[in-house]
């Protein structure tokens, strides 16, 4: 991973490698991993104790699935999903896959009443997308900073869970002062793992 003379990769170097590895995955691999992640989440005490979850709509190259969101909703959870609003994330209560549309950047997003950026404060647990996370809870996102900005509106006792593939839970990532520390990671092969 490291370039000659550089023993610790930069964020752009990490992103390039991780994106390439994700592109090499098949739809069947993503679906199988999403089913395993769903099972792990539904059987975790962290999720069982929460009433409201901040979630995300996974893109084709991200862990998770709409079926995972539907399963969490069926389990009685209130889900808040993001809608891109300028440089911020607004939040909408998820009412099912039939209430999705195409939004900013061509991404799927929920329809319904916009609840505001502060709505994330109602979530006891926030599922956070990432390219990778390290053992210290440092999360590597896609580089736009949407979640770094959004998570500052979360409750001070909210639990942050990042969903990643097994090889995306790494020993160490570059960290910056604005990075929000994750509490848990969920991977298909290792389950729920305490980080941070």
TrEMBL record:
<dbReference type="Pfam" id="PF01812">
    <property type="entry name" value="5-FTHF_cyc-lig"/>
</dbReference>
<dbReference type="GO" id="GO:0046872">
    <property type="term" value="F:metal ion binding"/>
</dbReference>
<keyword id="KW-0479">Metal-binding</keyword>
<dbReference type="InterPro" id="IPR037171">
    <property type="entry name" value="NagB/RpiA_transferase-like"/>
</dbReference>
<keyword id="KW-0436">Ligase</keyword>
<feature type="binding site">
    <location>
        <position position="57"/>
    </location>
    <ligand>
        <name>substrate</name>
    </ligand>
</feature>
<feature type="binding site">
    <location>
        <position position="62"/>
    </location>
    <ligand>
        <name>substrate</name>
    </ligand>
</feature>
<dbReference type="InterPro" id="IPR024185">
    <property type="entry name" value="FTHF_cligase-like_sf"/>
</dbReference>
<keyword id="KW-0067">ATP-binding</keyword>
<keyword id="KW-0547">Nucleotide-binding</keyword>
<dbReference type="GO" id="GO:0005524">
    <property type="term" value="F:ATP binding"/>
</dbReference>
<dbReference type="InterPro" id="IPR002698">
    <property type="entry name" value="FTHF_cligase"/>
</dbReference>
<feature type="binding site">
    <location>
        <begin position="139"/>
        <end position="147"/>
    </location>
    <ligand>
        <name>ATP</name>
    </ligand>
</feature>
<dbReference type="GO" id="GO:0030272">
    <property type="term" value="F:5-formyltetrahydrofolate cyclo-ligase activity"/>
</dbReference>
<dbReference type="GO" id="GO:0035999">
    <property type="term" value="P:tetrahydrofolate interconversion"/>
</dbReference>
<comment type="similarity">
    <text>Belongs to the 5-formyltetrahydrofolate cyclo-ligase family.</text>
</comment>
<feature type="binding site">
    <location>
        <begin position="11"/>
        <end position="15"/>
    </location>
    <ligand>
        <name>ATP</name>
    </ligand>
</feature>
<dbReference type="GO" id="GO:0009396">
    <property type="term" value="P:folic acid-containing compound biosynthetic process"/>
</dbReference>
<keyword id="KW-0460">Magnesium</keyword>
<protein>
    <recommendedName>
        <fullName>5-formyltetrahydrofolate cyclo-ligase</fullName>
        <ecNumber>6.3.3.2</ecNumber>
    </recommendedName>
</protein>
């Amino acid at each position: 991973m490291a370039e000659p003379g550089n023993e610790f990769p930069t964020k752009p170097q990490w992103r390039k490698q991780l994106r390439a590895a994700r592109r090499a995955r098949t739809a069947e691999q993503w679906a199988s991993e999403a089913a395993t992640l769903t099972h792990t989440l539904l059987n975790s005490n962290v999720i069982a104790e929460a009433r409201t979850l901040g979630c995300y709509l996974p893109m084709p190259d991200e862990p998770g699935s709409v079926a995972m969101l539907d399963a969490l909703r069926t389990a009685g959870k209130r889900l808040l999903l993001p809608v891109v609003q300028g440089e911020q994330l607004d939040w909408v209560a998820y009412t099912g896959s039939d209430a999705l549309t195409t939004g900013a950047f061509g991404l799927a997003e929920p329809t319904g009443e916009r609840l505001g950026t502060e709505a994330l404060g109602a979530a006891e647990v926030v599922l956070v997308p990432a390219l990778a996370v390290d053992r210290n809870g440092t999360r590597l996102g896609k580089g736009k900073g949407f979640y770094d900005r959004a998570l500052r509106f979360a409750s001070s006792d909210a639990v942050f869970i990042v969903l990643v593939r097994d090889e995306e839970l790494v020993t160490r990532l570059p960290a910056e002062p604005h990075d929000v520390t994750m509490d848990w990671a969920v991977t298909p092969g290792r389950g729920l793992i305490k980080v941070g």
